[in-house]
Amino acid sequence: MKKFILPAALILMVLMECSAFAAPKRIALMLEGADTASASGFNWLCLEGMRNAQVRFGNKKISTRYYNALDDKNKLLPLLKEAAASSDLVIITSVAYIKYLPEVRREYPSCSFLTFDTNNIDGITEIAFREEEGGFLAGALAAMITTRVDLERINDGKKIGIILGDKTPPVERFKRGYIAGAWYVDPGIEVLCEYTNDFFDRAKAAAAAMKLKNAGADIIFCVNGAAGIGAIERAKEGGYWTIGVDTELESEYPEMVLTSVVKRSGHVIYKVIENFVQNKLPRDRFSLGLKEDCIDISTWTRETKRNVPIDIRKRIDELEEKVSSGLIKIKETNYQGMSVK
């Protein structure tokens, strides 16, 4: 029997042709709750990162789609199954979906999954933001500002506040960092916390802000998603300042927001998709924070430069460098009988 040996050049040509006609990688993004049309929230940033990746890689390399249960718990499992059934990679940005992940993974073993935050499932990549680092800088800045009684809306007490949407891991890390940062600057600072158990209701956020203000807080860190805008909009009239989160909200609300903790979730989504396309996506857990340029505090904006004295901005830049380099580590501690975990 004669053997036919194809020339190497012909084999290479066939492989190149097959590669050219390879199906695009299908990527799904799982969101939960916030208004994806608003440019001031976590979900919008994630969606923008996916859109940028789609533009960068084009329809021949990737196909993207997003899903949002919009705070309907009954939709979480069906949407996750729908996404897994038609995707090569599912990026899960909300902890609400994670409890359904083992079931969906068993049903769709060929699909890869990646979660923001801990999933405790072997073989599934976890991305954990070090929100406590951004919270630390916000708390330090608030502690410095609250003693400047010559500034507008600052009273003669030493109380600052934080509004929290719910006891989810990212929110709790923000809280831990905020308290640690304030106490790093001055252990005598009292940090008042108010949970709204909601990330969407602006009226609840505004009411929580006034409760903190009436208790003596003159600076309030808003860690409750899109609902935080309710507290921010009320700030000037209510007689307090706020610190924003996710985007540079001081640019939109210059008389209400001192500065913002910027969480570059869109950049992370883009990098995840880029690594997946290049077959470089890790299969383990990794965390992102100041060092990786994924979290920061917006001391660079014109509005922050106007609202925050230059000596405080310089001190925050120094603290940022120390946190980024590991000279300051945010861990469990205890002040005034209160544990920061």
Helix content: 25-40%
Any idea what the CATH superfamily of the largest domain is called?
Response regulator
| End-to-end gap | 75 Å
* β-strand number: 14
Within the CATH hierarchy, at the fold level, what is the topology of the largest domain? Rossmann fold
Number of helices: 12
Q: What amount of the residues lies in strands?
A: 15-25%
Shape: elongated
Keywords: Cell membrane, Lipoprotein, Membrane, Signal
Family: Belongs to the BMP lipoprotein family.
Subcellular location: Cell membrane
Protein name: Membrane lipoprotein TmpC
Describe this structure in words.
This protein folds into 2 domains: 11-129 and 266-288, Rossmann fold (3-Layer(aba) Sandwich), CATH 3.40.50.2300; 131-263 and 295-340, Rossmann fold. The strands form 3 sheets. It has a 6-stranded parallel beta sheet with strand order 2-1-3-4-5-11, sandwiched between helices. A 6-stranded mixed beta sheet has the order 7-6-8-9-10-12, sandwiched between helices. Helices cover 40% and strands 21% of the residues. The longest helix has 17 residues, at 169-185. The radius of gyration is 23 Å and the shape is elongated. It is built from 12 helices and 14 strands. With 341 residues, it is of the alpha/beta class. α3 runs parallel beside α4. This is Membrane lipoprotein TmpC. Keywords: Cell membrane, Lipoprotein, Membrane, Signal.
